């Protein structure tokens, strides 16, 4: 589509704010033991540390890769009103670490299966391992409490960046997928080692297919290690998960399944046709490198399901409903196994043509303890091949691929497909300072002409914003709308309507800083 000299003028409707939209053009373009040093020493040997972290020519090449200073841990806020202490015991003391090495390629491949199909023997084995992990003392980094605190450490800003005083946080950026992959990779291997099973693989909660859209039975057995009290009791089976959750509805099972599948199509296909739209914004070292722009899947179903699972009796729907406490619930690991699987599905669907090649991303690194109690430094570049990492996913069907929504007023139809090289993507960009500490949710529609057709089932749905409070207060929301405009036969129009529909009372605390149409090469 050619924009020419014409301008896009869009009217935004929101219960509490109207803004004028403008148009812009934007192109995307050794196993040797080492030490991580504390406080003042870090500043004095900054160049040396950066050489170790980024490679010998890291500084010369001007890389802005991210990594934590694991001796700069400090209390952080789990909620606006709650200061939490996630730091590991003795973090001030330098700890020797080794660089990541791939597991022996001759080792058996660990195959992650859907949680709703695993058998009794598997459940018993996993339950035993989890019981052992929960019995380990807190000073053991393999213990369940320390594993859970990893998410608190990296997701609430408890660590500073290694070469800067700026806090490090992995949510709402392009580090979201690789960091969580690292976390569950090491967690899985620790679980297996506790029962002497090198084939053990975590299950994944396949909430993107109808058979998996309830909490798996293994997590509802009150006598097992998988059961967790801090969940919403009303969402136990047979309740169907709401992948775009705000509050409970009276939808029938069939309607909820249908909406979920249409929503998945938007988040995985039509709204995720460019790298940043799916992966999140480009986060780099230093305060000037900070960004806050989540990708489609992180917004929802990721955030939405965290909130859906968490207990309505707790102020932040803890445990799953807040970053600092989410990993205390064993279902967290099955949830993120599915997130990890969907990253692979997206990469493969796009034939790896949208994979990130930016060296700052590839060289970013984190630290995790492995099953042998060694502290390991692992880079993003190390975790991009699941087969080399020694695991794979049992394949399931993808019914959402065939759920391309229909426009309410149009009979135009076409088959879902992966974007061709060189195609441009229009995006809606929303900036909004956030106040308060409540879950914030609103949906975005384009050319909505019938208020009874408010649902991801209809083509007018452009995407959603689902925010679990924590971190910075200003966020960029980018939504891919090229396919949507084509289906609405609006891709040549000079005027479109963009409607932001508040879904939570907390939207009254949101200020829209601006909305614009952009082009991403």
From TrEMBL:
Q: Which cofactor does it need?
A: Cu(2+)
Return the SUPFAM superfamilies for the record: Di-copper centre-containing domain
- What residue stretches are annotated with the Tyrosinase copper-binding domain? 329-340
State the UniProt keywords alphabetically: Copper, Disulfide bond, Metal-binding, Oxidoreductase, Thioether bond
Q: Which GO MF term does the entry hold, naming one?
A: catechol oxidase activity
**Domain of life of the source:** Eukaryota
What protein family does this chain belong to? Belongs to the tyrosinase family.
PANTHER family attached to this UniProt entry: AUREUSIDIN SYNTHASE-LIKE (PTHR11474:SF128), TYROSINASE FAMILY MEMBER (PTHR11474)
Q: Mind telling me what this protein is named?
A: Tyrosinase copper-binding domain-containing protein
Q: Which organism is it from?
A: Hibiscus trionum (Flower of an hour)
């Amino acid at each position: 589509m050619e924009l020419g000299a014409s301008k896009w003028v869009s009217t935004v409707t929101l219960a509490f704010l109207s803004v004028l939209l403008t148009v812009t053009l934007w192109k995307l373009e050794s196993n040797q033991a080492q030490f991580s040093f504390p406080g003042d020493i870090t500043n004095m040997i900054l160049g040396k540390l950066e050489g170790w972290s980024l490679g010998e020519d890291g500084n010369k090449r001007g890389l802005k890769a991210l990594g934590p200073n694991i001796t700069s841990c400090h209390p952080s806020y789990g909620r606006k009103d709650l200061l939490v202490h996630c730091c590991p015991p003795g973090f001030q003391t330098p700890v020797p670490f080794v660089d990541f090495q791939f597991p022996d390629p001759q080792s058996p491949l660990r195959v992650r299966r859907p949680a709703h199909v695993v058998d009794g023997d598997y459940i018993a084995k996993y339950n035993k391992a989890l019981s052992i992990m929960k019995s380990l003392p807190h000073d053991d980094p393999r213990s369940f409490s320390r594993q859970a605190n990893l998410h608190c450490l990296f997701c609430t800003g408890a660590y500073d960046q290694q070469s800067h005083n700026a806090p490090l946080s992995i949510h709402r950026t392009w580090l979201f997928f690789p960091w969580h992959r690292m976390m569950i990779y090491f967690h899985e291997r620790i679980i297996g080692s506790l029962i002497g099973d090198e084939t053990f693989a975590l299950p994944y909660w396949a909430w993107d297919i109808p058979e998996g859209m309830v909490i798996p039975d293994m997590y509802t057995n009150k006598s097992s290690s998988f059961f967790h009290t801090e969940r919403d009791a009303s969402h136990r089976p047979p309740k169907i998960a709401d992948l775009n959750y705000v509050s409970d509805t009276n939808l029938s099972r069939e309607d909820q399944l249908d909406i979920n599948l249409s929503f998945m199509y938007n988040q995985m296909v039509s709204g995720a046709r460019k790298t940043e739209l799916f992966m999140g914004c480009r986060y780099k070292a230093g305060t000037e490198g900070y960004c806050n722009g989540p990708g489609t899947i992180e917004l929802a179903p990721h955030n939405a399901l965290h909130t859906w699972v968490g207990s309505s009796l707790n102020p932040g729907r803890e445990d799953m409903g807040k970053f600092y406490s989410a990993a205390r619930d064993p279902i967290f690991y099955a949830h993120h196994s599915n997130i990890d699987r969907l990253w692979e599905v997206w990469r493969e669907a796009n034939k790896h043509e949208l994979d990130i090649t930016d060296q700052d991303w590839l060289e970013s690194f984190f630290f995790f303890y492995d099953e042998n109690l060694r502290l390991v430094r692992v880079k993003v570049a190390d975790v991009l091949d699941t087969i080399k990492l020694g695991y794979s996913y049992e394949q399931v069907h993808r019914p959402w691929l065939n759920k391309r929504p229909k426009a309410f007023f149009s009979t135009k139809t076409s088959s879902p497909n992966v974007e061709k090289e060189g195609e441009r993507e229009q995006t809606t960009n929303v900036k909004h300072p956030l106040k308060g500490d409540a879950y914030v949710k609103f949906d975005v529609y384009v050319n909505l002409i019938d208020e009874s057709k408010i649902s991801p089932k209809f083509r007018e749905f452009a995407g959603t914003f689902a925010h679990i409070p924590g971190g910075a207060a200003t966020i960029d929301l980018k939504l891919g709308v090229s396919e949507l405009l084509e289906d609405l036969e609006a891709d040549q129009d000079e005027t479109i309507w963009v409607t932001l529909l508040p879904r939570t009372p907390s939207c009254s605390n949101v200020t829209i800083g601006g909305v614009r149409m952009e082009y991403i090469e």
